[in-house]
Design brief:
heterodimer, A: 9-stranded mixed beta sheet, 3-stranded antiparallel beta sheet, elongated, B: about 100 residues, alpha+beta, Histone, subunit A, flat
């Protein structure tokens, strides 16, 4: 979207990600989504008097991995108490890194070549989860709320970008690439719909070369699509206010998914006073080089490198192929695809089957071994399976796992071996002598006529290429 | 010597902490907290050139625990602490504003 006149938008994103640790940040309660309410709670995460926090080693390692992937400096860091009262936070303070975050001064390179700075990526704890009853389910209009503290104390890393983003597509690309990085580090599952990755967008507008305008922070962005739409809406809203002679107030705004508008949540007329002070129950964090190197060495390749490697297997990829490659990287299907390509499967076929068939059945991806994926594609390339059959075999592999040849046999696909195909075609030639004669005289259009008949007889299970090969052999 | 802390500042901090103080208490705490702060300002008379700030009396760093699940509290025992329970969760009165 382009903004009217010569307006320019300035966007910075704050991305919170829950870490995929076994336990919470400061206690040994299980960090698991979807448990019965208030079953993963203890004196520490309920804020009971006398309880003491102890840092989760794995959470620190995930935070470092995120920092390393974002080219940050890992520095000695400390924890503070951010004091405020809210029902989802039983201690009445959130433990967070404040002036000395573990990671600072990094950057993220986007696929289009632009670079977005990362100011910091610090550790903090999540709050409990409130459900508002009565009214619309939002806080306004509710008559009471229910709180589940299972999420209280779940480890988070907050990644704060610089105000470097200039349009909503770039914001989306940043969030998408960051999500891929978080998944690649193993730190996060990147599930925005479950709230394990949450984005707030700071949006302002200005004329080129002018100082930054007053920004508004948009919350409740639950998908990349919402992020993009909300930013566009908000920038246009601000321009309209300014052009009508108004001023933008610094405030927090709520994105409404249904109306696709933002509305005031909270104004920031009074600067927040959280009385930050050092958490006296935690000591400094200062990971030495040995620890940092251990984390670095355990990290796999990041999406940018994996994308480069996969693109490198195509001599000159088309836009459609690049799109499919993007899907493959985004869904972490590239290891399967690269294995198949290494086994001499056509890169285009491997990427296409992954981006379409596998992408459609991700729930069962654990059932599919790279051997099975490769074997299925080689069977398709050898003409043992038609495209339709190969897709069906992949579907079955995703649903229940197994061995492709056995699945093909069980599905009756083996009957279409060249012997039975030859017999079918022999019969059709006998029944359609005129058409066959014209085909033999060079009327290539009639190949389609015969393919159509074969498909009809085999209920679509024949391989078109194999039919043509058989016809040509007999001509 | 003027007090290092004003009465308004004490009232502000009390409001942030959701403490309701009487006028007498405000006077008392302004004086008492002022004495504490005055003690801290003694530090400023020292020559601290080259001294690294210390925020913790222990010389420890990187105190961590392994990421291993330990038993949580019994659900019934937890809910027994709540003034009001609904659907296995803590029921709280209407919340008047969004979280920060």
């Amino acid at each position: 979207m382009t903004l009217p006149g010569d307006w320019e938008m300035v966007v910075g994103l704050e991305v919170h990600t829950e870490l995929k640790t076994n336990t919470k940040m400061f206690c040994g309660c299980a960090n698991s989504f979807g448990s019965q309410p208030n079953t993963n709670v203890c004196p520490v995460c309920l804020g009971l008097p006398g309880s003491l926090p102890v840092l989760n080693e794995r959470a620190i390692e995930f935070a470092m991995a995120i920092g390393i992937a974002l080219h940050c400096t890992i520095a000695p860091s400390t924890f503070h108490r951010k004091n405020y009262f809210y029902p989802d936070m039983p201690k009445d303070f959130q433990i967070s890194q404040y002036d000395l975050p573990i990671n600072s001064n990094g950057y993220l390179d986007l696929p289009d070549g632009s670079r977005i700075s990362v100011e910091r990526a610090h550790m903090e704890e999540d709050t409990g989860k409130s459900t508002h009853l009565g009214g619309s389910g939002r806080i306004h209009g509710a008559d009471r709320s229910l709180v589940d503290y299972n999420r209280s104390g779940v480890p988070l890393v907050e990644i704060v970008s610089g105000p470097d983003i200039r349009n909503s597509a770039q914001a989306r690309a940043y969030a998408s690439e960051l999500r891929g990085i978080l998944i690649a580090t193993g730190a996060s599952d990147g599930r925005m719909e479950e709230g394990s990755m949450r984005i707030d967008a700071n949006v302002s507008v200005r004329k080129p070369g002018k100082p930054f305008g007053t920004r508004c922070e948009i919350k409740n962005l639950n998908s990349l699509r919402s992020l993009q739409r909300a930013i566009d809406y908000e920038a246009l809203r601000q321009i309209e206010v300014i052009e009508d002679g108004g001023v933008i107030r610094q405030e927090t705004r709520h994105w409404d998914e249904n109306t696709e508008t933002t509305s005031t949540m909270r104004t920031k007329e009074e600067a927040e006073d959280y009385r930050y002070f050092r958490e006296p129950d935690l000591v400094d964090l200062d990971p030495d080089q040995v620890w940092q190197d251990r984390v670095r060495e355990a990290m796999g390749p990041m999406p940018a490198q994996r994308r480069r490697e996969l693109v490198g297997r195509f001599s000159s990829p088309t836009d459609a192929q690049l799109d499919a490659i993007e899907v493959v990287i985004d869904l972490s299907l590239d290891r399967l695809v690269m294995t198949a390509i290494d086994e001499k499967v056509d890169p285009n076929l491997a990427v296409a089957r992954a981006a379409n068939e596998l992408a459609g059945g991700l729930g069962g991806i654990a059932n599919l071994t790279s051997d099975a994926f490769t074997t299925t594609l080689r069977m398709e390339e050898a003409g043992e399976l038609s495209a339709t059959q190969a897709k069906a075999v992949l579907g079955e592999l995703l649903a229940a796992g197994g061995e492709p040849r056995a699945i093909a046999a069980a599905m009756g696909f083996e009957q279409l071996s060249s012997d039975s195909l030859g017999a079918t075609i022999g019969e059709l030639i006998a029944q359609h002598g005129d058409e066959w004669a014209r085909y033999c005289e060079g009327d290539e259009k009639l190949a389609q006529f015969f393919i159509g008949l074969v498909m009809k007889l085999t209920k679509g299970q024949a391989n078109g290429k194999a039919v043509i090969a058989e016809l040509q052999k007999r001509r | 010597m003027s007090s290092p802390l004003s009465r308004d500042e004490v009232a502000h901090v009390a409001r942030l902490a959701r403490l309701k103080l009487t006028n007498e208490e405000l006077d008392l705490f302004t004086e008492q907290l002022g004495a504490v702060l005055e003690h801290a300002t003694d530090m400023q008379s020292l020559n601290l050139e080259g001294v690294v700030p210390t925020a913790h009396p222990f010389g420890l760093i990187n105190v961590v625990r392994a990421d291993v699940v330990r038993p949580s509290l019994d659900h019934q025992a937890v809910m027994a602490m709540a003034p009001d329970v609904e659907d296995g969760r803590f029921a709280v009165p209407r919340i008047m504003g969004e979280a920060p």
